[in-house]
Amino acid sequence: QKEVEQNSGPLSVPEGAIASLNCTYSDRGSQSFFWYRQYSGKSPELIMFIYSNGDKEDGRFTAQLNKASQYVSLLIRDSQPSDSATYLCAVIAGNNRLAFGKGNQVVVIP
Amino acid sequence: DARVTQTPRDKVTEMGQEVTMRCQPILGHNTVFWYRQTMMQGLELLAYFRNRAPLDDSGMPKDRFSAEMPDATLATLKIQPSEPRDSAVYFCASGLTREGPPEQFFGPGTRLTVL
User: Fold this and answer.
1) Facing residues of B10 across strands?
2) What DSSP state is assigned to residue A36?
3) Cβ-based contacts of A101 with chain B (< 8 Å)
């Protein structure tokens, strides 16, 4: 079983809509969760982290964590063409390293 | 501004050749990570150093890959001999361990093509 799963295919959303991304993780003891954004041909950059159950908002981004169900999600409100990228979910795994999902591509259509 | 640097940015080589990739972490950071990214596998951790000591290299094929930190300002990843299946983008990231989870800052990557 993979440590972090992101199973959805590419997500196309119209400009101004909400993009919703989901991620599940296998280690029930995981405490810290991260969302990275990666533009095509570029390196990943951290956009959100969350440690506690519930929602965490930062601008147009909201991270949601449900430890009982072992999933973490990312909502992008008022999606802009500049949000078109691949979003990587990551979890702190053994030895304090990050385990990444394969990512979800988001395409915002003007 | 502080950033992770990697050289070379692109490398094309032939099967069997040695490849060396270099990374300069952000000054003051004490953790360095090497990742490999492919479409099929996503982002995989190859090696992880803290205070220049290797902590985890379980993701690295030991027979052909080696990672070192000769000093605090340089990390190297070497492949010898290289194979076509090694073609990928290799990222270096650095961070600073402290209270709470670490944030990692990624370099621009080295795109490796093995023919």
Assistant:
1) B111
2) E
3) 42
Q: Minimal Cα distance from A44: which residue of B?
A: B106
Distance from CA of B55 to the nearest CA of A (A): 8
- What distance in Å separates residue A95's CA from the closest CA in chain B? 8
**Tens digit of pLDDT for each residue in B7-54?**
999 999 999 999 999 999 999 999 999 999 998 889 999 999 999 999
Q: What residues in A contact B46, CB-CB < 8 Å? A: none
A-chain CB neighbours of B103 within 8 Å are 46, 49
3-state SS, chain B, equals CCCCEEECCEEEECCCCCEEEEEECCCCCCEEEEEEEECCCEEEEEEEEECCEEEECCCCCCCCEEEEEEECCEEEEEECCCCHHHCEEEEEEEECCCCCCCCEEECCCEEEEEC
Note whether B108 contacts A: Cβ–Cβ < 8 A.
yes
Which helix (H) or strand (E) segment is A48 a member of? strand A45-50
What does the pLDDT read at residue A30? 87
- pLDDT digit string, tens, across residues B43-102: 999 999 999 999 888 888 889 999 999 999 999 999 999 999 999 999 999 988 765 556
